[in-house]
Each structure stands twice: as C-alpha cells, then as structure tokens.
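Entry:
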Amino acid sequence: MTHHFFKAFVMGAVLTISAPTSVIAAECIAPANPGGGWDFTCRQIGKIMYEIGAVDKPIQVTNMAGGGGGLAYGHVVNERDTDADLIVAASSATSTRLAQNAYAGMTADQVRFVGAIGADPGVIVVAADSPFKTLGDMVDAIKANPGSVAFAGGSAVGGFDHLKPLMILQRGGFTDITKVKYIGLDGGADAITQTVGGFTQVMTGDMSEIVGFLKAGEIRVLAVLTDERVPGFEKIPTAKEQGFDVVAVNWRGLYVPKGVSDDTFNEWASKLQQVADSDAWKEAMVANGLAPFTKVGGDFQSYVDGLVTEIRQLSKDIGVIQ
C-alpha cells in the first residue's frame, strides 16, 4: 500500500476532540509513527470533529507504533478496556491482521468497531492491450486454465491485495484458489509496472496506486471493489454490477474499547457520521485519494465481523494460517 498521500495532512500533536456529554478530554491512538494512514485518521478526523462542533475539548494524539498495530491493540485490550474517552485509528490492515492471528492471539471481538468514513478503493487492473475487457473475461480465463493468469500486488502472500481476487473468483464459482498465481511485490507501483510490462496479467491493488497509469492510458481497470462507482472515475464499473458481490477497500476508521457502554459507542458513531457528512471531510478525501465509504455503528461492526470471518477462511485455504 502507498501512504505518501497522507503525509500532507500531518498536523500538530494536539487536536481538539471530545464529546459534550459522556466523552470528554478524549485521546486518539494512532498505532503507527507520524505520517502514515493511521496517523492521518486520528489527526484529520479529530480536527474536523472540532471544527464542525461535534466535540469541544482538546485531546492528545498518541502515536503508538509496533507490531503492525498490535502494540496499540494490546494496550487497549489489556489496559484501557473501559475507557470511554479513547478512540483508536484502524483500517483494513487491522481486520486482516486480526483474521490472520497476527496480534499474538488477540481477536477482533475484543474491541468495538465504531465506523469507517473513507476508503482507498480496491481495483483489479490489466494492461491497456489485455484481452480481458471485463471481470468476467478474467474469471473465465482462470476457470479454463488457472495457470494462465498471474496477479501482481503490493502486499505479501496472504495480504489484502492477494485476497481481493480470491474473493472475486470464489464468487464466480472457482474454488481451487491454491492454483491461483500471485506475486507479492514491494508496493503497488512495482505491481502495476509488472502488469503494464506484461510480466503478469493482472494487478490487484488500490485506486491511489494506479491513477497516474490510468490517466496515461497504460491500463484498463476491470473493476473497482466498492458498493458504487467512485466519484471522478464513473466510467469504471464495480465488481458488484458485473455479478461479483465483493467490496474490498482499504477503509479508514476507528475502534473503541469493548467495555464501553452502548451509549458511548453510539455517541462516537454519531460524531463520526457528522464528520462523514461535512464538506471539510469531502475535501480531505479528494486531497488524499479516498473514496466515500461510510459505515458507522452496528452496520460497520457487522461488516468487520463478516470480513474477518472471510479473510480467516481464505487465509486457511491458501495456507497462510493453520
């Protein structure tokens, strides 16, 4: 995944964020160093919450890097389980690592996922001269000869880029996913270059990684993995409208400790919804290459639960976990 587009929004360490009722003097933990996606989530969402009047007290953003988010996760679970004044930045990487038991045995049900309000859309991409014109063409080719199509992605084997096409293929009725070729490279730029150069047939990645190649006419995007077409890229069809019910995005959101009350959970969900509805957040999404992806409260918790279950099973099927 690429994160350079988040760096322009790195703010000062002190933000104003709290709730006028039960949530006061809150803290937002970014489970990484300053400058990345989780840091962006804490700082930008917190800044907008204050600007629109959803909150009224300053908080400290705490950067807690380590273990791909695992250090912060363990801190919340073991030491802050009932802290109503705590929110934590999360993304698709969080749910993937939890599904794959990357957080030392900790599980997704040990926190509550409040919501996501933006996402880097997943994409399935081929070179401009590829014989594949639709997602169905690609799936049919793999069904006919699994070894004829190799995917390139910017994550390791078993990472989210690897899992995206497997979800599509399963929806298309192809179940022998261990035969699917995947080459994990050092970032999306390398993956798209391999595909444009003809070394692989398909690239699986995120929208932010391929915009330059798309504008240059070097690639064709077979599908965007969102519920609806992405603003600014309306010509690209979704996988869903092509008959493959897959939504796979690098969402940006928050979780809270499991032990907080339902009222506290709902308050944070409401405040996150207010940010999603604001003009300031819409501008921030455009500036950072994010697409609308709003799921808050119970709807988002259900989405994460389903995602973790699916990723865990896929990871077992391809031998990433036992």
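The chain has two domains: 4-119+250-317, 121-242.
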